[in-house]
Amino acid sequence: MEILKEYPVGQDAVKVTNIFKNVLQGTLNSSEDARLELFQNMRTFYDGDYEGIVDILKDDLLNKPFSQKTLSETRFLHIDVIQKVLNRLTAGIYDKKPIRQLFVDGKPYNELEEILDYIDFHQKVKEALRKALFFNLCLVQPIVRENEFELDNITGDEFVVTSRKNYLKIKDIILARSDGQTIYKIFWSDDKHYLIGDYGQETPVEGNRSMVNPYRELPFSVLRIKEGMDFFGEPNQSLYNIQKALDVKLTNLDITEIQQHFGVWFGVNTNFPQDVKFSPGILHQVNGLPSEDVPPRLENIVPNIDWSSLKNNIDWIVDLVLEMEGIADSKSVTGVARKIDELEIEERKQGVKTNLKKFEVNLLNKIRVVWNYHARELGKKPIPKGSFKVEFVEDRRMESIDTLIKRRLMEVKLGLKDSVDYVMEDLGLSEQEAIIHIQVRQKRRAELNLNYDMTIDNKLSDYKLDTSKENVNLDDSGKMTKEENIVNRKIE
């Protein structure tokens, strides 16, 4: 079996735009060239690369109206509004891990959670969502690198695609990767996989001399927030442009305060040397002038700048960002208007969750394909065939305790839920773990004679353990370990 070797993403100074120009040998059209440059600039701000941010701002301001000399002497300020907005937009979506399950012959595969923890699945999809909300789209690629299974989040500045007739689907893709020294251009299609040389020649990936795609499908999942006119759709350019405008205004305010605070000195008939400096504690005198001469005069001219308006203008931009993204500003929005903003962003989150369910199921299937191909190499068991299911745990932090109790009592009375469901929701456990969690506490209450009124019945008379398996092992928190037993719901 051939073992593929991929190359890690490196912090390379070469712009991806230039990489693809070389790869495609001038066939890149102007719109694609502009898209790559835009995404590269947006990525610079997303990553918080200060030196790159300064270069972008200088390029925007050169001769508009500032000279090269002025810009080279300017100390630019940057306050990251992008990450603040993305934090607010994603808050509550991934606070609790969704319930991710694989059903094999109708039964849950209990080792899935351990595999997902091993590849850091939850954090990777959480970061993919943040990138997608800014770039509109993020690819996630399951990959084996140096005998480690990883997930790469790839934004639009790192690849070009050829779309199928359905322009939302990938026909083939070229990725840019770096090992810190060399830039690699990697080609993928359903049946081919190879490197592209400096002159466009096809070069085998190490361990894959036949240059075939061993997975027989593209190992990429696409998280797309909104469909547009092409594969990529429209990134959040409004947030990007406002971030740049804010940095320019902050820098302007800082420079204005420094340069104008002490004013401009204006001297008449002082005969001071050309390079004289004025500073606190220094006395300069002009003596011996004839009485008929104009007496020497030194004045300090201070511009009448409205500092309050400048600062309010910056605050207005920040408020505009929040308003544009549907985020309620706690300082200025109250009452009905605030409630409407909260409902708007909650509705948006529900739509995002719908996309995320489909995306995660697709990604889990891609992971299984790549994982099983490299299972022997990694010393891991293959993931069995079956269907994946993803359910988000509802975030009810805004719900009062009284409302929570009434809602759960109603759900229990109507037979919609029981204690197992609530433990799964509250603690983010699987069904089997929730049953064990409750049984352990029932046993402890019985042993310690902890008799108290249980408002919601949590007796598990309709559950049983499959005791034909080895004994259930619990850690100190009552959560099942790797040797967890299989718990089946008894069907009456």
Question: What does this protein look like?
Answer:
41% of the residues lie in helices and 15% in strands. It has 492 residues and is an alpha+beta fold. The chain folds into two domains: 1-260 and 301-395, no CATH class; 396-492, no CATH class. The strands form five sheets. The chain has a five-stranded antiparallel beta sheet, covered by helices on one side. Strands 2-1-13 form a three-stranded antiparallel beta sheet. Strand 1 (99-104) and strand 2 (107-108) form a beta hairpin. Helix 5 (82-90) packs across helix 7 (121-135) and helix 13 (419-427) crosses helix 14 (431-448). It is extended. It starts with 15 loop residues before the first helix and ends with a strand. Residues 1-5, 9-14 and 455-492 have low confidence and may be disordered.
Produce the secondary structure layout.
Layout: H1 16-24, H2 30-47, H3 50-61, H4 68-72, H5 82-90, E1 99-104, E2 107-108, H6 112-118, H7 121-135, E3 137-145, E4 148-154, E5 159-163, E6 170-178, E7 183-189, E8 193-196, E9 202-203, E10 221-224, H8 237-260, E11 264-268, E12 297-301, H9 307-324, H10 335-373, H11 375-378, E13 387-391, H12 401-413, H13 419-427, H14 431-448, E14 463-465, E15 487-489
Antiparallel strand pairs: 1-2, 1-13, 3-4, 3-10, 5-6, 6-7, 7-8, 8-9, 11-12, 14-15
